[in-house]
Design goal:
The protein contains nine helices and nine strands. It has about 240 residues and is an alpha/beta fold. The protein starts with a helix and ends with a helix. It binds zinc ion. Zinc ion binds next to helix 7.
Length: about 240
């Protein structure tokens, strides 16, 4: 932060204009508007339209310290002009988003603003609650509390399942709600997502570890591990 900005209050738009002068010293600063929006995630957007820079930031950042807004200005204006932001700015912004209270706030808005994008657990062919109970019995001694379960709307072949920590929910691709889909493959995908419940994602600094070593070792204990993987490859 420059000395001047420490002496008087700078609005977010002021910060963007200052950063613009820093990274494009020979370009006159175009009109800049910054709006805070109630997005369902932590995304921020920038665009140049009719010679006007429009910045839309998640309202989570409305109370961010000025150096964080400044770091984001470097990142967003860098994107606009295809100039890489410095590692220092990337790092400062990421650390802020990764702060415990901010992560909590992001989870909260995802849960309350994010629309529900799933179908009930009882599908046309399979009932996810029954699959969950069976896998729970067979692999976790029946000890795992059943989270909300649902089928995805989209028959995704790339996202077979996911655990959504903000809704505490396992969502399985509807591609498995089909008599031709091998049950072992579905059980394996359920097992994988249940492991996500068992091994919560750990955060350290800016690193986010989803499939830890313990997770992977445990996953290999699934009796049909190799067969299930083969079946999944064969399905498409
Ligand atoms: Zn996973």
């Amino acid at each position: 932060m420059s000395v001047a900005s420490a002496l008087f209050f700078e609005s977010a738009a002021d910060i963007f204009r200052r950063v613009h002068r820093e990274i494009k010293p020979r370009t006159p600063v175009p009109p800049v508007s910054v709006e805070y929006k109630a997005f369902a995630n932590a995304d921020s957007h920038v665009r140049l339209q009719h010679g006007h820079i429009q910045v839309r930031l998640t309202d989570l950042l409305a109370v961010a310290p000025a150096p964080v807004t400044e770091a984001l200005a470097h990142i967003l204006l860098g994107k606009l002009y295809r100039l890489a932001a410095s590692a220092q700015h990337e790092q400062r912004y990421k650390l802020y988003l990764n702060r415990k209270d901010i992560r909590q706030a992001i989870d909260d808005i995802r849960r309350t603003r994010g629309r529900k994008h799933h179908l009930p657990p009882k599908g046309e062919v399979h009932d996810l609650e029954r699959i969950f109970d069976e896998v729970n019995e067979a692999h976790f001694g029946g000890m795992m509390a059943r989270p909300d379960l649902g089928w995805s709307h989209i028959r995704s072949r790339t996202r077979l399942g996911h655990f959504d920590p903000s809704h505490g929910m396992i969502i399985i691709s509807r591609i498995f709600d089909d008599p031709r889909a091998p049950r072992l493959a579905l059980e394996y995908v359920m097992f994988h997502e249940m492991l996500h419940l068992h091994y919560p994602v750990s955060h350290s600094g800016t690193r986010r570890c989803v499939h830890s070593r313990e997770f992977k070792l445990h996953e290999k204990q699934f009796p049909g591990f190799e067969d299930a993987k083969k079946l999944l490859r064969k399905m498409w």
